[in-house]
Design brief:
alpha+beta, two-stranded antiparallel sheet, 2 strands, 42% helix, globular
Length: 123
């Protein structure tokens, strides 16, 4: 449940965005950081295994530094990937990801969850 820590959630979002905007490893379409997991809708530009290893490594190092746990395991080994086959599926998955905090009863609207691609600080 380390992801409940706002500093850790923010660093995960930062690394997710950096992977898209600075490293150009993927296009980011949607993401959400929940208390014990994250969802991300990405179009990879590099091999998926390399993408996941890099993303998990960067986020683990940053989160462990915040927790003063340097060098310890942060993420579980597994991750689940799915291929999006058409526009309808893309929209459904994007909505599922951004509505996850609403479904969990954490906020009333996706725009209210600060660790999501749907977040709107002006709303």
């Amino acid at each position: 449940m380390w992801l409940k820590n706002p500093r850790i959630a923010a660093c995960i979002v930062d690394r997710l965005l950096r992977g898209a905007t600075e490293l150009h490893h993927y296009d980011s379409h949607a993401y959400v950081v929940m208390a014990n997991h994250i969802h991300a809708l990405l179009t990879p530009k590099i091999e998926v295994r390399r993408l996941m290893n890099g993303l998990k490594g960067a986020t683990a190092r940053a989160a462990n530094a915040i927790l003063n746990r340097t060098g310890k395991r942060f993420w579980q080994d597994e991750s689940f990937d799915h291929w999006v086959r058409n526009e309808e599926q893309f929209v459904r998955i994007k909505n599922y990801i951004e509505r996850n905090p609403v479904a969990a009863g954490l906020v009333a609207r996706p725009e209210d969850w600060p660790w999501s691609s749907a977040y709107d600080p002006k709303s």
